[in-house]
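Forwarding these from the shared drive since the link keeps breaking.
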Amino acid sequence: MARYGNILGTIGNTPVVRINRLGPPGVNLWVKVEAFNPLGSVKDRLALSVIETAEKSGELKPGQTVIEATSGNTGIGLAMVCAQKGYPLVVTMAESFSVERRKLMRFLGAKVVLTPAALGATGMLDKTIELAAAHGWFFTRQFENDANPAVHERTTAREIMADFAGETLDYWVTGYGTGGTLQGVGRVLARESPATRIIVAEPDSAALLASGLPQPRHDDGTPDGRHPAWKPHPMQGWTPDFIPKITGDAVALKLIHQLVTVTGADAMACSRDLATKEGIFVGITSGATFAAALQVAATAKPGANILCMLPDTGERYLSTPLFGDIPADMTEAELAIFRSTPHGVPTAA
């Protein structure tokens, strides 16, 4: 273990863990568990990078309010960074996202402005742009900011290359969200491990990249409205209702070798399986990415190394359908265990 000057020094260096019970025999299936970041998601990396880059450039002034549109993870990471560095933070978030995320950000000192669910991610983004312009706040622009993929090129990719040094990494599987992980890691793999096939997963009901339809954009790269192929899906933060500029740039760079679609049901089933059969506690987006990795593993050659990104922890999904059939009270089986010895009185009938 090490000593750190503050919590921000603990971001990154997340473990790669072997899957032992869920993958097909003869294939080496690995997961990179980003829940080990201090606030539980891969977006901690992005949050630190966009703030420190803006500090160095002078774009972010001491004491200036920071603002961002988020489905939760980026906002939670920014709340940690801003709390440690002393910046006020305002986040906009569609009211459809889990209440745990709102509470986590508020607990860390951020202000959370909710936008109508019907307006989706584009609605919360439009509100952010409006508020930033009206109040002179620093807008971190996670979907367009080059500091986002840069941190993954500098940290996430280097960790992966070190973890597979001397071996062949045959497949790397990821969702895209903002596109920062995809583009940053993808650039390094294309340059230093060209044999690695980059597999990108999307919801089957919102296969924006697979549709081939362009994303309308403003001159600054922000989306000009919702993508025509988007439909609602349960993977919060995994695929917004537009193709972010950073993701679009990754497509233009031809970093992606294959697109895979995943159902919401498979995403939640894989999240639960990771918990109950591997002891790995992650959210719906991680389950979705893992479901895509299982599709890849089913046809991979014997001995292949497959690495799957697991973006966040499961704790911020407690109020979502992922936990919909997990009871708070004792089940009949648990009551039977209680009653199997004479001491005490059951707390539930």
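-- next protein --
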Amino acid sequence: MRGLYVHIPFCRSKCGYCDFASAPGTGPEVDPFLDALAAETARYDHLAGSFSTLYAGGGTPSLLSPEQLARLLRIIETLTGPLADLRESTFEANPESLTAQKAALLRGAGVNRVSLGLQAAQDRLLKSLGRPAMSADFLRAWGALRAAGFDNLNADLMCGLPGQSAKDFMDSMAWLLALKPEHVSFYALEVHEGTPFHAAGVKEEPELSAEMYEAGAAALAAAGLARYEISNFARPGRESLHNLNYWDQGEYLGLGPAAASYLDGERRANAASSAAYAKALLSGLAAPMQYSEKLEGKARRAERLMLGLRRTSGIELSGDIFIEFREEITRLLSAGLLEKDGDRIRIKGSRLYVSNAVFREFV
């Protein structure tokens, strides 16, 4: 299986916690960006027809106008063929920019999955995050997606937010579960350098976040959404195929600024600047690159191990991995961070929240 990721770098505004390659922009820069994206896409026409999944992320892909969205879909289909023929095609959206017209356009084009940003159900928390949409906007957008025929929806939720109590978080979880999502991704707040929150001195609260995280996981399980990866929960058969391909160390092509690719054992990423991206491609050059590395030997096996351990099913201990990392695996088993079941190892369910302590052993 091979996935296609397309990065749309525009947002209505920058959220306080966001460290993705995105910036406010809804004006004259969008159409030249689409010209540049078409030029980059043409450079990979030899891969046309080889993709099983699509993920359009950002940024906020739903911020594009209906005409721009239609053009984006045409550009993508030069590589994928009809979207309806893919095993999975996902678009990210934010409630303030997803209209009934756009929802119908996406569904009519063959998109079969949408990921909608919620983060919290309390408007005071959404305002503190710098979110441009409130809870009523989310309900309107969710209804528009259901009305358009989408039966595979993900919602994003966060815990450990400034001013968020455990009750706030569980109220948000109950509010969301009442909408019967097929998939939920939820994350603890991380304050990264360069974000508005970092500049404002916002601090993480790991102990409170851990309590919320475990309570949220239990609520999701009780509602029939099983955890299949550290931060992802799904109803049976609704796991994200695109993301599963990442965690299986499958191949994928990334298009757009900051988009990463993994092809023929080489991992690379485009530079994050949208302006530099558009300028290069519109001048007939390749997209500027942030990095490129060939993963071989121990480095490739270490990545395979770390990606496999993100999944709750863990990873099968092949001979090369066990020989290479016998000492680290034995130490983590003794520390109670890993558990072994036959020839598979996995992070203990109760320790998934501290999974980075496991991954550090293999870096």
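The two ends are 26 Å apart (CA to CA). The mean pLDDT is 92.

- D.
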